[in-house]
Structures are given as C-alpha cells and as structure tokens.
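Course assignment 3, question 2. Fill in each field.
Student: A.L.
Task: Predict the tertiary structure for the chain below.
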Amino acid sequence: MQAVVGHHHWARPGGGQLVVAAAAVALSKHSDVTLAGIAKFDPSKYLEWFGIDLRNLPIVSLPFALSAFGLYSRLLIWYPTGKAIGPETDLVFLDEYNYGPLLRKKKKNKFKLVEYIHFPIERSVGLNRESDPYVVERYSHFPLNMYWETYLKLLKVVVRKNPFQTADVVLTNSKWTASIVRDSYGEFPIVLNPPIPPNVVPIATIPAFDERMNNVVMVGRFTEEKRYEWIIENIAPKVRGTFKIFFFGGAGTPVSLRYKSRLISLAARAGSKVSDRIGNPGDVYFISDAPRDLINSTIDKSKVFLHSTINEHWGIVIAEAMARGLPIVVHKSGGAWSDLAQEGSSGIGYESAEEAIESITLLCTDQNKWSYFQNKGLARTRELSLDNFSARLNQLAR
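Answer field:
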C-alpha cells in the first residue's frame, strides 16, 4: 500500500502538525508514506516537538519558496500533493480544504481520500472575516485587508466544496467540531481526537497537592483569540495576593509582540506586578517562547491549568497539561469542553469570570476535588495515545 500525507506548513509545531505527523506514522505501519508540503522542512524537528520520527519518509514540496506570501501558500497544497501521488498510490490523507484541482486526478487514479477537518472553512479562515478573532486582529486594516480579499478570491478557485462529496472518509478533532461540520454540510464526520504527543509523559512521581504552589498556568500564542486581556482585567485583580498567574506563549511575530506589550500595560494599569522571569516577585508572569522543560517544571509546581479561549476546537496544550497531572479549568464551549473536560467529568468549566475564580479557588483549596480532577484528567489522556490514534486510523484506511 502507498499513501501520501499532505499539509501546507510542516515547519512549525502546532495541533495541525501533530495530527499529520501522527497520521504519517500510523499509515507507515502498513504503507509506504510520502509527505507533501509547500516548503522543505527538517523532519528531525518532529522528534524534538512531539517525539515522532519522520526522518525516513520522503518529502515532496514546491520547487520555489513563498515566504513573503505565507497565506497564499495555503492555496497551493494541491500541487506538491499531486506530485507525490503516483499510479500506485492507494490513499491520500489531507487536513486541508484547498485540494479541488486534485479531484480530477482522484477520479483517474482511483485513490481513496481522507480529509481531516480541524474546523469548517466557512466558519474559520475562509469566508467570513468577522467570525474569526485571529483574522479580525491581523487582516482588518489596510493594506492587509486587501491582501485578505485577494486570498478569498483565489481560494474560490481551489477550494473543494462539500467534503462529504469529495472525500471517502471525513474526520474531525472533537464532538463539538463534528456538530459544526454537520451544521455546515448536513452530515456528521467521524471524530478522531488528536493524540497526546509521545514525548509528553507524566513525570515518574507526580508532585502531590501539598507540594504545589497556588499557581495558575496558561499556555498559548500571544494572540487576541486567546483572550488573555480578559484574564488580566477580570481575573487577575480579584486573585491578586492569593494566586500567581503564568502566561506562556509564542511571540514570534510583530502582531504577537504588540499584543504582549498591550497585555503588560493592561496588567500594570490594573495594579498587578508584572514579571518576565520566573523566580522574580510578581502577580502575573509573561514568558515568551519558553523551552518545554521550563513550561513543564512550572506545570508540575502548579495547581490549575486555565484556558480562556472560547470555542477552542481541540486544545493540544490543555491535553498536555492533563497528561502531566494538572487539573484544568476551561470555558464551557468548544472541543476543549466536549472532549477534554468531557462536560465536567474530567475538568471544570466556566462561563463567567466569577465561575472561573470559583473553580480556581476550589482546586487550590480542596485537596479531594483537586485529586479527583487530576485522576480523571490522567485517565482521559491515556485514551488519547498515539497507539489508539494509529489503530483507529488504520482501521478506517483498511
């Protein structure tokens, strides 16, 4: 059996990259797998990021670079994927929607197509700029609004229509996303939760409740969609002196740096003492691009993982925190609530700032509740192993 796994941007760590890497490893147990992407990348990085080894898999990419037009590069995933498809290809796995030009080749070569939907194009980056906080943040003003409008026009040329009419199997990341897909296309996809990265394992002895500090940890990019300003204005002032809040985030773009600077100003105006170094005095800590061992050591000393994004499709950082034995508090929306917190079975949910503070306080003061949600979270993440993901995907592939 021969398979192709396509993704537009393999060269950075994230939830999408974890899924396609896991798919490649899973399918390679029974197939010769080729990776397809827009640009060349270093597959050894996947060992560092996720503990997944892609080094022996061949890679097909564009013969030229589009670093200055990153968004437009998404429109071209069909090209390297098409180049990777040969007459013996049996299966193509894509977590992209811009594969319209491949459908003629699919009809001719008779390969099967598996599409993994992180979120429907109509509801996310695609056709409604006002519905996506990231898009609003980045593309609302001149000249980037023109850049975005041109992207949408080009998108219509290559986007597939209804995935249930173009793919043989349609997968998605959570029950919540599945319901959105159903609302968009009229059919339910198969839910295949992303796996926990193999290199995210609990430490040999998880620190007990009384060995931890009243720390609240948050992890995610410094972007508006994470709603960190909501935490700074509505949570931090009310828990000052009782809990410390740690924000770990990527800040590798000018937009992220501007947002981080705004958060620091907001926190200072709200009366919080701000620090960018763990160990220094502070009420809130903003740590940019921290190494994984620093994030993990902070998690292992803390009592609560807090997530503030509304309608998070999945939440890889939430799953990783659960796997290290840290109870979670998430907004009652999205896949984080439906599939990770399991609507209150393995994590606590909130809708208001008062509920969030009450949940944090409960976990920081009630050892029995803390232990209960720690154990439930660990049990949930054991179900999200790479082996389980591989077994289910290969079952579908067969």
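Instructor remarks: The longest helix spans residues 254-269. The mean pLDDT is 91.
Grade: pending
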